[in-house]
Amino acid sequence: QMNDTLATLQQRGDIFTRNMLNSKLKVAQMQMALKEADALIVANREKTKKKAIGLLNLHVLTPNDAYQRADGLNPTKLADINQKKLVANLEARLNKALIRRAEVVN
Length: 106
Prior knowledge:
Layout: H1 2-56, H2 75-105
C-alpha cells in the first residue's frame, strides 16, 4: 500500500512538473511575441512621427525647421517681443519710483 501511495504521488509530481515546464515555455513564447510587437509599435510610431512632422512643416516659409514652427510663428521673435514688454514695464515702474522719490525729497 505504501508503494501505491508513493507511485501515485510520484505520478502527480510528474504531472505538475510537466505542467510547470509547459507553462514556462508558454510564458517565454508570449514574452518573445510581446517583444516583437513592441518593436513593431516603436517602428510604426517613429514612421508616423516623421510623416506628421513632414506634414506640419509642409507650408513653412523658412527652409530651417528649427527657427520657425509649422503654424508660422517665430519663437525667437516672440521671445524678443516678450523681453521688450518686460523691459518697458520695468522702466515704467522705475520712472514712477523715481518720481515718488523726487517728490519726497522736495
